[in-house]
């Protein structure tokens, strides 16, 4: 059974086996969590992402999928990159957001990662409403069979922390 914990803080400061990156499809860095992970993790992450783009992911990573690279200078072994969906308004496809969590846990299992830190995927520039995103994230993690021992949601601010805390009560 996977334990779910919450932390308010900086995902790039977590000591875990794998850090999940809310990546953009290019895998080449960006803003928000993606930019922070690339900056703190250093050039090794970008180098592996470029290799992925040159081989299996020439057109980029598809929304809802996940792939791993080194964690570079982060206090982790791997970064699991996943591309969340952009909120298009009511009726947006929540199955794509759920897939980000499910696929990231699948990759974590393939890597034998026991501790995984997740951000609140798609809630920044992709505009997914925090309360709905928190519900999808927590329920998906609870419903996904995985050998991961701890899923740590690392939430940047108090609003996100409270939204996730409501879901794990």
CATH topology: Leucine Aminopeptidase, subunit E, domain 1
Q: In angstroms, what separates the terminal alpha carbons?
A: 17 Å
CATH superfamily: Leucine Aminopeptidase, subunit E, domain 1
Number of strands: 6
Overall structural class, as computed from helix and strand content, comes to alpha/beta
Strand content: 15-25%
Largest sheet: 6 strands, mixed
What percent of the residues sit in helical stretches (DSSP H or I)? 25-40%
Task: Count the domains.
Answer: 1
The coarse silhouette is globular
Cα-based radius of gyration, to the nearest Å = 14 Å
Mean model confidence by pLDDT: 96
CATH architecture verdict: 3-Layer(aba) Sandwich
The CATH class, by name, is Alpha Beta
* Sheet with most strands: strand arrangement: 1-6-5-2-4-3
Order of helices and strands: EEHHEEHEHEH
Describe it for me?
This protein is an alpha/beta fold. It has helices spanning 32-41, 43-54, 94-111, 130-143, 158-167, and strands at residues 3-8, 18-23, 66-70, 78-83, 115-118, 150-155. A six-stranded mixed β-sheet has the order 1-6-5-2-4-3, with helices on both faces. The protein is globular. The chain starts with a strand and ends with a helix.
């Amino acid at each position: 059974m996977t334990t779910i914990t919450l932390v308010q803080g900086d995902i790039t400061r977590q000591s875990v086996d794998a850090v999940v990156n809310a990546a953009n499809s290019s895998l080449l860095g960006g803003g928000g969590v993606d930019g922070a992970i690339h900056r703190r993790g250093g050039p090794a992450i970008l180098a592996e992402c470029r290799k992925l783009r040159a081989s299996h992911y020439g057109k980029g990573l598809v929304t809802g999928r996940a792939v791993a690279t080194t964690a570079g200078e982060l206090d982790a072994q791997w970064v699991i990159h996943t591309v969340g969906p952009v909120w298009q308004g009511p009726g947006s496809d929540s199955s794509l957001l759920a897939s980000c969590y499910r696929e990231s846990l699948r990759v974590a299992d393939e890597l034998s990662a026991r501790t995984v830190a997740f951000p609140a995927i798609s809630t920044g520039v992709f505009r997914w409403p925090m309360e709905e995103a928190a519900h999808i994230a927590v329920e998906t993690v609870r419903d996904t069979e995985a050998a991961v021992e701890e899923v740590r949601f690392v939430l940047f601010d108090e609003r996100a922390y409270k939204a996730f805390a409501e879901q794990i009560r």
